[in-house]
Inverse folding.
């Protein structure tokens, strides 16, 4: 009965999973235990069966290579099995038969012959033996050399494969770089195309800009012409304004004249209106011996003043003056209208008078002869009177 | 094998026909490199031809002997490659093709499926998934027990148990074949 521990070791051993001391100890146990050996055989067969799950038909060239290799290398059994080295070529007896003459020497001859044969055979045997040893050595050396060559080939194959892998990797890297370079080239081409397009666009924009510049210049020319026209118009307008200003001055002057005229006319009209309101009174002589004496008084009620025109009044003594009186019902006594004297040559006079007290209504005018300088209240005789 | 040991090329041709598929498939599965796998299988067949006389039937079948030869050589190469890769500070696992693909399911060439292959696949498919995975890693990669444990994020003892149970069950299943 195998315990679990040994079952486990056997399973691991069958899968070549034991190493070092563990493997050595198990192999020692295995060598002593046929049951364990049988288990290992079974488990190794079971593990080997796993290979069937991966079974893959190799390329036909592999079979050709294998059979070419075994054809080139002689089979060990073939070289080992050939008949043993030649001990068949034993020489025939050396001499011919010499029946009678040599009979007495025959035994010696035979003896000598045997001796010779024995000696020759011994020499030959040793020679063959040493040759066989030599051959075995050579064979062993050849085996070693062959193993060496195989190992070298294997090493070279590994190195070559590694180099191939490196080369493959380099080729892949180069391809990657090439692809990157292509991508960059495509990108650059695209950029160039874009730049060319942009250049075209810029050229078109430049042409367009030049066209617009031309248009702008033409427009500027138009504007300059328009400006010149405007300036000319402005000059004309200025002249016109000056003319109009001058005309305006004339008109102002005319207007002023007209206003003056209107004022004058208004004044005249007012005068005429005032005149209509004027009170004109004729004063008649109250003196019998001088009946031709006459006076006219014109009273302007607006200005509260008047004009007195006197004619043919007798000359006065030096200590006398004529005095005008204005009769207003609001006062009990006539209001003093001022003193005056006549011109000795014309016996008359004319003067503007203004009563000493405010007068609102005039009922009559009277002229009396008073002492020089006049009096506040009439004292002398009335010489002229008018209502 | 005895006929081959005596230089019988016809017998060798017969052996080639029977073994080349699984031997090449195994080499390819381990090496992941067709030309390298072909070189290895070539050398292995030449060795079988030359060393046929040394075959000891008491230690196992001819197929076990041949597959052991191919596996050991392939794993040696993978381990050498990994040592190189380690030296070059490159990551080994991806080189070994230990992706998520399942070697048992994906490794076989449809054209080469034999009855043997069908039977083995059916037997393996009946194993628990973790046992399948452990056996796959142990057989088709150069990983050691410890590396398999790390790869599967599983304690070493568990991995060993999976390998033991899986292989014993596979043995029983294959023994029951008609």
């Amino acid at each position: 009965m195998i315990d679990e521990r040994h079952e486990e070791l056997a399973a691991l051993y069958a899968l070549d999973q034991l190493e070092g001391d563990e493997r050595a100890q198990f192999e020692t146990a295995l060598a002593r235990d046929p049951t364990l050996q049988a288990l290992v055989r079974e488990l190794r067969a079971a593990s080997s069966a796993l290979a069937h799950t991966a079974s893959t038909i190799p390329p036909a060239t592999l079979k050709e290579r294998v059979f070419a290799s075994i054809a080139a290398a002689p089979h060990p059994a073939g070289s080992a099995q050939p008949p043993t080295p030649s001990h068949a070529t034993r020489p025939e007896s050396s001499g011919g038969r010499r029946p009678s003459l040599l009979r007495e020497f025959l035994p010696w001859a035979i003896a000598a012959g045997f001796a010779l044969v024995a000696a020759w055979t011994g020499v030959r045997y040793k020679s063959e033996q040493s040759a066989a040893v030599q051959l075995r050595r050579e064979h062993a050396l050849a085996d070693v050399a062959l193993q060496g060559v195989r190992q070298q080939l294997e090493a070279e194959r590994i190195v070559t494969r590694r180099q191939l892998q490196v080369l493959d990797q380099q080729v892949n890297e180069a391809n990657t770089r090439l692809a990157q370079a292509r991508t960059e080239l495509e990108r650059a081409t695209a950029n160039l195309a874009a730049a060319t397009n942009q250049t075209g666009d810029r050229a078109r924009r430049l042409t367009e800009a030049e066209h617009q510049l031309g248009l702008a210049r033409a427009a500027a020319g138009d504007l300059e012409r328009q400006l010149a026209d405007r300036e000319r118009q402005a000059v004309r307008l200025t002249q016109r304004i000056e003319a109009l200003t001058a005309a305006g001055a004339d008109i102002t002057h005319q207007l002023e004249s007209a206003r003056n005229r209107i004022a004058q006319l208004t004044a005249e009209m007012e005068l005429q209106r005032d005149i209509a309101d004027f009170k004109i009174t004729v004063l008649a002589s109250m003196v019998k011996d001088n009946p031709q004496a006459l006076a006219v008084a014109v009273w302007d009620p607006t200005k509260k003043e008047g004009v007195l025109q006197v004619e043919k009044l007798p000359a006065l003594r030096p200590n006398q003056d004529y005095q005008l009186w204005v009769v207003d019902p609001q006062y009990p006594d006539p209001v003093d209208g001022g003193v005056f004297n006549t011109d000795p040559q014309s016996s008359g006079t004319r003067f503007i008078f203004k009563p000493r007290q405010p007068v609102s209504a005039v009922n009559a005018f009277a002229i009396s002869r008073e002492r020089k300088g006049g009096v506040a209240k009439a004292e002398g005789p009335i010489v002229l009177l008018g209502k | 094998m005895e006929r081959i040991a005596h230089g019988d090329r016809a017998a060798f041709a017969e052996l080639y026909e029977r073994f080349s598929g699984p031997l090449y498939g195994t080499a390819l599965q381990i090496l992941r490199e067709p030309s390298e796998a072909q070189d290895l299988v070539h050398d292995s067949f030449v060795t079988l031809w030359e060393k046929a006389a040394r075959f000891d039937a008491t230690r196992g079948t001819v197929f076990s002997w041949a597959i052991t030869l191919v596996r050991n050589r392939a794993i040696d190469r993978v381990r050498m490659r990994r040592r190189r890769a380690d030296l070059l500070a490159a990551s080994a696992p991806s080189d070994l093709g230990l992706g998520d693909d399942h070697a048992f399911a994906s490794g076989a060439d449809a054209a080469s499926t034999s009855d043997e292959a069908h039977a083995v696949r059916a037997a393996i498919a009946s194993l628990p998934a973790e046992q399948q995975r452990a056996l796959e890693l142990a057989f088709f990669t150069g990983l050691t027990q410890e590396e398999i444990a790390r790869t599967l994020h599983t304690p070493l003892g568990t991995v060993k148990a999976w390998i033991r149970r899986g292989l014993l069950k596979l043995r029983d299943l294959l023994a029951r074949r008609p």
User: Anything to note?
Assistant: Chain B has ten helices and no strands. Confidence is low (pLDDT under 50) at residues 90-103, 105-112 of chain B. Chain B touches chain A through 77 residues (CB under 8 Å). The two ends of chain B are 24 Å apart (CA to CA).
